[in-house]
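Study the following:
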Amino acid sequence: MQPDLRDSSRRQFRAEDLAASLRSALPEFDKNTILIGFTSEDIYPVSQDWRFAFGWRSSATTSAVVSTARLSLPYAGLPASAERSSTRLRKIVTKDIGIFYFGLPQSSNPKSVLYNQIMGIEELDNVGEDF
């Protein structure tokens, strides 16, 4: 990863810069190719007032970055597990594919994987895996 993509004061990568860097790092792919990168580092979107993001999509570059840094977090007595982390990762990637590949809009349905208000681990766990 390029060191200038990291916000050293927050110890996180800037999500927008990271997603955009995928396209510039892989110029051999045409602009219609969907790129999804993965990092174990924590990310946050500069353009939003969020502490972190599970993932970030850039429509302009048809690229997304997914962070696994917080996917193993427990909540309200629900212990972390490898299976739960895998399901969470699958949901994030499915949402990116639904939006980029299938051209589906985000949803206000809290049970849809396309739900547009996933602001924490509990919301991520509550969405389904279907569009």
User: Anything to note?
Assistant: Helices lie at 15-25, 82-100, 121-126. The two ends are 32 Å apart (CA to CA). Residues 82-100 form the longest helix (19 residues). The beta strands are 6-7, 12-14, 35-39, 43-44, 55-58, 63-67.
